[in-house]
Write a structure and sequence with these properties.
By secondary structure, this protein is mainly alpha-helical. The chain contains eight helices and two strands, in the order ααααβααβαα. The chain is globular and about 45 Å long. The N and C termini lie far apart (47 Å).
């Protein structure tokens, strides 16, 4: 179905998730469209989404049951205008999964943090890795 009109699919999906008009540059969108002209790229993208709703959750459950935790410090970022922060206490969720320190914050954007708020993401990364 996606392969019948990958450009329409991508523009619809990205349009719904992107909360900062113009954040995804035309040349970036063109590259997505070019890549999605390949059936293998579409298949890989669908498999990634399927895994997030299936095997990834099973693997997370196995780690939880075995008491396995992330050992390194984490700094988590999410879009304040997206659904993640409205559905979960993001920092608290990661604190359950991590034996080290967990910090984080919402950025003023939707799903595409690096496209919508590139300077904020860079600032957060510099602060995390250099301190």
């Amino acid at each position: 179905m996606i392969g019948l009109d990958p450009e329409f699919y991508l523009r619809e999906i990205f349009g719904g998730l992107n909360k900062t008009p113009g954040a995804i540059a035309p040349e970036a969108m063109n590259e997505y469209v070019r890549a999605f002209a390949n059936a293998d790229a579409i298949h890989a993208s669908c498999e990634d989404m399927r895994a997030a709703a299936d095997i990834d959750l099973e693997m997370d459950k196995g780690d939880d049951e075995a008491g396995r935790k992330i050992e390194c410090p984490l700094h988590v970022l999410w879009g304040a205008k997206g659904t993640v922060g409205s559905l979960w206490d993001v920092v608290a969720v990661w604190r359950e999964k991590c034996a080290a320190s967990v910090t984080g914050k919402a950025l003023d954007c939707g799903h595409f943090l690096t496209e919508e708020r590139p300077q904020d993401v860079l600032t957060e990364l510099f602060h995390f890795f250099l301190n």
